[in-house]
Amino acid sequence: MRPANHPSVIELSKAYFEHHNQPLEMLPNWHFCDNEADANDCLDLVLAGVKKATSPSLWWYKVNDIALPQVGDLNIVTDWHGYAHCIVKTTKVTIVPFNLIDDTYAALEGEGDKSLAYWRQVHWAYYQRELAETKYTPAHDMPIVCEEFEVVFTLEDK
Length: 158
Fold this sequence. Notes:
Order of helices and strands: HEHEHEEHHE
Distance between the termini: 26 Å
Low-confidence stretches: none
Shape: globular
Mean pLDDT: 95
Strand order of the largest sheet: 1-3-4-5-2
Largest sheet: 5 strands, mixed
Structural class: alpha+beta
Number of helices: 5
Radius of gyration: 16 Å
């Protein structure tokens, strides 16, 4: 976790709510992944309109005591260093066992060659790291929170 919001998070929030003639609301902000290269690559895929979903395990939400995403949620996506780049709106949330993720969903994630095989390989490695120091052990039937989203505002919209 970053210790404080980058000033760009506040600026992007202000711009979004002014654009929509609504009172300012501080939106949650986060970056993808657990390392700089992947976080920034995923952000680039979102900005390019390729990545439209993300998939932490349900157990990660439990361990971190974070509420599950809800349809309509707005979040600011940052790069690894916390600089705000866009606002996404959650459009669908389902909980699916790891081994039942399908080709269609893997393609929505937009990573690598967009295949299910690629999705399983990189996400299995990620879940190993995500859950490493918890009471949970990754399993093929572990629950995955499949969050689909759309970009609703970017730096260029300011």
